[in-house]
Design brief:
Blueprint: H1 2-6, E1 9-12, H2 18-27, E2 29-32, H3 37-41, E3 49-55, H4 62-66, E4 73-77, H5 86-91, E5 95-97, H6 104-119, H7 122-130, E6 149-153, H8 157-168, E7 172-176, E8 188-189, H9 192-198, E9 201-204, H10 218-224, E10 229-232, H11 241-250, E11 255-258, E12 277-279, H12 288-306
Helix pairs in contact: 6-8, 9-10
The structure holds 2-keto-D-gluconic acid.
Length: 320
C-alpha cells in the first residue's frame, strides 16, 4: 500500500490498448477520464494529478487542464496536438510530448493503400468476386496510378514518407506548405489552389487545428476537378466536408480515400453507396507494431519526466 501511495497520479483521458493500460497501471495511480466525465462537467478538481495521458484524437481540453491544477505534463500517444490546448499548456508551464518518427511509415502506407484502392477500384472488385458477378463477365477497367501527378499538402515527416512511396509508384510528386524546403527537389507550390489544378491527386498530410481549418475548401476541390482524387490521412477539420460530400455526389470531384472526418466517428452516410470513395476508421497508424512503438515512446517520456530526465520528444510550445 505504501508503494501505491508513492506512485505518481496520472489521468488517462480515453481507454488505451490493454498492454499499455497494464503498464500504466503497474507504474502509476491511474484515474480513468472516461469514468469521470460527469464529475468533470460538475466542476470536480483533481489536485493530485501530475500527468495526463491522451491520444491525438482525444487531446486535453482547457476544461480538463483547469481541473488538474498540479498537472506538469501532457503525454500524447500520437503526433497530432490539435486537440490539446497548447495556449493553456504554454501559459501554465505544462510540458507536452507526442510520438513523432515512429508512425510515419504506417500512416504513409495507409495513404498509398487508399490511393491504390480508389484508382484500382479494389473494394468494388472484391465485392464483384464475392457476389459471383465475375461468372457473368469481366470487371470494368480501372485507372492506373503510375504517371499521375501527386500533390502533397504538408511535407513534414509523414508527407515525406508519402512522397517516397508515391515516387516508387512512378508518380510525379510536388508539394504545398507554409514554406519551401531546402533539402528536397520536388516542385513547390506556394498556392494550394494552383497546385490542386496541376495534379491528379491531393494527399493531405498537414496538421489539424484552427489555422488549417477547411484549407481544402470548395475552390481547391473544384481545381482538383472531376478526374481528381482527394486522400486525407491528416485531420477531418482540414477539409470542408459538406463541400466534399456535395462534389463527390454530383461528380465535380472524381474520388476520395478518407481515413479522417470532421465529426468522427460520424461519417456522412450518403458516402456509403459511392463506389469512387474508400472510407477507413482513422486507422492510419493502427498496426500492432506502430501502436507498440507509439506506446513505448509515450511511456519513455512519462518515465523521463518522473525521474527528472530530459523529455525524449517534447513539443516546443513557443513554435507549436
Ligand atoms: C492516432 C493520430 O489515431 O497521431 C495522431 O495524431 O491521429 C493517430 O496516430 C491516435 O493518436 C491514436 O493514439
Amino acid at each position: 500500500m505504501m508503494q501505491l501511495a508513492n506512485r505518481p497520479v496520472i489521468f488517462i483521458v480515453v481507454p488505451l490498448a490493454p498492454a499499455l493500460m497494464a503498464q500504466l497501471n503497474a507504474q502509476f495511480e491511474c484515474l480513468h477520464g472516461w469514468e469521470l466525465q460527469d464529475a468533470l462537467r460538475a466542476g470536480e478538481v483533481w489536485p493530485a494529478v501530475r500527468a495526463v495521458v491522451t491520444t491525438g484524437g482525444a487531446g486535453a481540453s482547457r476544461q480538463l487542464l483547469q481541473a488538474l491544477p498540479a498537472v506538469e505534463l501532457v503525454a500524447c500517444v500520437g503526433v497530432g496536438f490539435d486537440a490539446i490546448d497548447l495556449d493553456y499548456a504554454r501559459t501554465h508551464g505544462i510540458a507536452v510530448t507526442t510520438t513523432p518518427g515512429v508512425l510515419d511509415r504506417c500512416v504513409a502506407d495507409t495513404a498509398l493503400a487508399l490511393l491504390l484502392a480508389v484508382f484500382r477500384q479494389l473494394l468494388s472488385a472484391d465485392a464483384f468476386v464475392r457476389q459471383g458477378r465475375w461468372l457473368a463477365g469481366g470487371f470494368p477497367l480501372a485507372r492506373s496510378l503510375s504517371g499521375k501527378r501527386c500533390g502533397i499538402v504538408g511535407l513534414g515527416n509523414i508527407g515525406r514518407a508519402i512522397a517516397r512511396r508515391a515516387e516508387a509508384f512512378d508518380m510525379a510528386v510536388c508539394y504545398y506548405g507554409p514554406s519551401q524546403k531546402a533539402d528536397v527537389a520536388y516542385p513547390y507550390f506556394a498556392d494550394l489552389t494552383t497546385m490542386a489544378a496541376a495534379v491528379d491527386v491531393l494527399v493531405l498530410a498537414l496538421p489539424g487545428g484552427v489555422s488549417t481549418r477547411h484549407v481544402v475548401d470548395g475552390r481547391v476541390m473544384d481545381a482538383l476537378g472531376a478526374d481528381g482524387v482527394l486522400i486525407n490521412i491528416a485531420r477531418g477539420s482540414v477539409v470542408d466536408q459538406a463541400a466534399l460530400v456535395e462534389r463527390l455526389l454530383d461528380g465535380r470531384l472524381g474520388g476520395a480515400g478518407l481515413d479522417v472526418f470532421e465529426h468522427e466517428p460520424q461519417v456522412p452516410e450518403v458516402l456509403f453507396g459511392l463506389p469512387n470513395v474508400v472510407l477507413t476508421p482513422h486507422m492510419a497508424s493502427a498496426t500492432v507494431e506502430t501502436r507498440a512503438a507509439m506506446a513505448q515512446l509515450m511511456l519513455d517520456n512519462l518515465r523521463a519526466h518522473f525521474s527528472g530526465q530530459p523529455l525524449l520528444t517534447p513539443l516546443h510550445l513557443d513554435c507549436a
